[in-house]
Amino acid sequence: MPGSPIDRSFKPMASDAPSPAGTGAARPSLRVGLILADNFTLSAFALFTDHLRLAADEGDLSRPVRVRWSIMARSPEPIRASCGVMLTPTDGLLSPRDLDYVVVVGGILHAGRQIDVATGDYLRGVAEAGTTLIGLCTGSFILCREGLMRGRRTCVSWYHYQDFLESFPDQAVTADRLFLEDGDRITCAGGAGTADLAIHLIERHLSRAIAQKASQVLLFDRARAGGEAQPHPPLSQTVTDPRVRRASLIMEQNLASPIAISELAAQLGLSTRQFERLCSVTVGLTPGALYRQLRLRYAEWLVENTSRSIMDIALDAGFADASHFTRQFKACFGLSPSKRRLEPRSAAAGERDSAGTRVFS
After folding, report:
1. Longest CA–CA separation in the chain, Å
2. CA-to-CA separations, 7 to 133, 143, 291, in angstroms, rounded
């Protein structure tokens, strides 16, 4: 692993190499093998693996004492990340009995096959051995494509929710949480959620103190549970008309300081009346009502998922004062912000999948 002082040069395949557990060295408490898809997401890999590195040893020595991690592949050729960085594997495909988890790090969905046939066969062997499989980012798509998520629920990012439904219409999926454990399968939406998953595993196998040390060094203020909500997806992803999509994106980029509807219309090359008619036909709302709903929708997410004051949330959502914000919020959602915050999240959300519906009261 880069930054590690020990020799981690590429080793033979699992079928050719002696088990690391048979070397006489002390067995780490957590053993992880990572498989990188072609065009894998570097941030998902780095966040996950750096937490393992920091948990593995005292200080910043990076020795794999408590944790052992291996970048596995069929051959030693470098693997390209989606950003163009090349990463060299450290090991062949290790025996599943020597690993607690095999992590598949996905990447760009539409850039051809992400893993080769032999690696797919290896993953099925891992499943048969009972070793837990983890899909990071679009690694969940790879697990589904290899038939390894049948009868299980998969967690994906809101950004890839529609892609998943199109690819696997018969597969149960959620996009309203950071990661999900379903037996010996774990799927993670990706992004910053990969850090939360790594912290969760470190705490399980080592201790909360060691997990906290890793997250604090990387400047994460707190660990989030897998069931916590993903940051809300932009409405613009589901609007069909390109002009209204652009308008809603501009609105979402200017929630704290709303811009005039006439200025929005001018940016679209429309008169205010044309913009109002177009917006009403496309989403069933006037531009002003759409803007207000977007601001309230963002405020609702902040109320449910942060401990910030109602005043701070009101200002962030573009309301001049807390009392006006509270009236608007109650009119839209039927409860004041403070009462909504006291409700269990599932009840507040009406058990809806935040990526699958767009609700305008």
Report:
1. 78
2. 26, 31, 57
Tell me, what amino acid is at 50? D
Provide the 8-state DSSP code for 152.
S
Compute the distance between CA of residue 209 and CA of residue 217 in angstroms, rounded to an integer.
12
pLDDT at 112 > cutoff 60: yes
Q: Which of 25, 21, 32, 22 is nearest to 6 (CA)?
A: 25
DSSP label of 132 = E
Distances (CA, A) of 116 to 59, 99, 112, 174: 38, 21, 11, 27
Other C-beta atoms closer than 10 Å to the C-beta of 347 total 9
DSSP 8-state secondary structure symbol assigned to residue 180 = E
Q: Which two tokens stand for residue 43?
A: 């941030």
User: φ and ψ at 199, to 5 degrees?
Assistant: -60, -40
Alpha-carbon span 265 to 96, nearest angstrom: 59
For residue 22, what pLDDT is reported?
A: 40
All residues at 6 or more sequence positions from 338 whose CB lies less than 8 Å from its CB, including other chains = 310
Going by pLDDT thresholds of 50, 70 and 90, the confidence category of residue 350 is very low
* Cα dist from 55 to 7, 66, 192, 232, 353, whole Å: 19, 7, 18, 31, 34
Q: Which residue has the tokens 């025996």?
A: 95
Coil, helix or strand for 283? helix
What is the pTM for the complete model shown? 0.68
Give the number of residues written for the chain.
361
Contacts with 83 (C-beta within 8 Å, 6 or more apart), sequence order: 42
What average pLDDT score do residues 91-113 get?
91
3-state secondary structure of 138: coil
Question: Among 33-37, 139-143, 220-224, which is the least confidently predicted range?
Answer: 220-224
Q: How many CB atoms lie within 10 A of CB 183?
A: 9
How big, in percent rounded to 5, are the helix, strand and coil portions of the chain?
A: 45, 10, 45
Query: Half-sphere exposure of 304 toward its Cβ, with a 13 Å CA cutoff?
Result: 26
Chain-centre distance for alpha carbon 126: 24
